[in-house]
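Hi W.,

Here's what went into the run:
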Amino acid sequence: MSTATHSRGMFGLALRRFRRHRLALGSAAALAVLAVLAVAAPLVEAALGVDSGVVDLFNRFAPATAAHPLGTDELGRDVLVRLLYGGRVSLLVGLVTALAAAVIGTTVGLIAGFYGGRVDGLLMRFTDGVIALPLLPLLIVLAALDLEKVGLPAAFVQSENVSLYRIIAIVAVVGWTTVARLVRGAALTLREADFVLAAHAQGAGALRIMAVHILPNLISPIIVATTLSVGSVILLESVLSFLGLGIQPPIPSWGNLLTNAQELIWTAPALAFYPGILIFVTVIAFNFLGDGLQDALDPKAMEGR
Amino acid sequence: MTRFLATRVAQSVIVLALMSFAIYALIGLMPGDPIDLMISADPKMTPEDAARLRALYGVDKPVVERYANWLIAALGGDLGYSRLYAAPVLDVLLPALGNTLILLGLTLVLSLAIGLPAGVVAALRPYSRTDYAINLFAFAGISVPAFWLGLLLIIVFAVILGVLPAGGTETVGGAGFWDQAKYLVLPVANLTLASVGGHTRYMRAAMMETLRQDYIRTARAKGAGRARVVLGHALRNAMIPVVTIIALQFGYLFSGALITETIFAYPGMGKLIFDSIMGNDFNLALVALLFATLVTLVGNLLADVAYAWLDPRIAYR
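Here's what came out:
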């Protein structure tokens, strides 16, 4: 168990172990490059002198040129710039959703593990129930709901960004179970630990014990699980957007850039290639990163090396 | 064992009952209702007529009452009528379920036949070059967007090479076993590539954990050969968590089938669920979603039973 004074040493060690994980290191670099490019999308757009929002039907499916390094799409818009804007949305959705799911999962897991007994039983049966649901069909139903019938104000429902909020909400609502189980398991053992008993004896309240004494000891597994879940969130967002149920055009995302790809497969197969390869690279990078962090933060995983 | 089984079955039935209400309520929150669909084709209908119809069919009643009515009818064997297919829901559902089971069965056999040996080989020499190569493929399989992989398979094998059909189940008029088999190749390949990585990773992790155990060292010390230690002692124990995970994964596979079936226009449960939700076919969507939940629950139940049966250390609660 690490305390605050030892934590620098522990993370220093972890950093050293992480550096040896070359795939994870490369993944971190690749993700950083992608993120910078996505954030700089307007700059790239300006540098190329194109406007990705303007439809130019005389210039459909244009081949790669200096102005359009990856050519243009079925409406004559620049493919590269749209990919970068799509990356902004996909990365943002992935990170925000994974964080939201981690917060829900940590809360549920902490409460279940700390209180134990009947609270634990109830919360974990509920978690089991959510895990038992057919994920994708359920997400499709949630994505098809009429938000006005749910009781949200019409002005919000008709705003442009609503599909963004909706996808973050519905994926977070089903995606918290892994973190909840992880945190609950660890909290169950930690609540019997001597330092927790000591805190009890000193009169610390439940909230303080959970936040100050138990949570800091769970940070490593939560970081690993959250990193790994960014990848699966991006996959879910892309498939829902591909099916027309996720991010709605005109907001581009890597998933909805592929929506028309199947019809255009005979005329412009390259259009189906680029968004997919970016999703693939991003997801695999997050998975390698999570794997590397796991090895670095969990000393047990280093055995046998 | 009987008591353990009974508890788990009872739990699954409760989850299924709760889900049936949740899905019923959620479908009520989707845009439009059955009366909207009826009147959309009839310009002479007045709002008063619509209100009368809503009262007649009970659409204006509270959701709990509507659900109770549906449940009573469903338990009596009346699952309703599909709007899209103009047939009783079960007549539409059962052939689709059959198609999906064929797809999933073939995928499971193939991905286990590849994934399990690959996982064992990787675990025998951890952090070797072979292990890295197998790991790389496994991670690629986990990380690839399945729908995009499906598009690539269509581009390569149907568009460029032209050797396999891009979708459907059989050539019009040209029925026959080999003809239908040709239509299964790409969907099965798609699902297999998307699921084999997970199996490899689980097998590798379980095998590495087992090889660390004391009884493996004991077996080695007593002079058992490498093959005997791995196949006789380690593999059997390592299979326990793997079998469980495979049963648990059946639900995920079912979800994955939705994507593959939609891309390849394969008439299975996944495509049925998608089409019925998109086409406002409320009766069909409801029952199809419940079937999907049922299949997932049965998978989880089998996982628990397999775990309790394979590992004598687990107490039957």
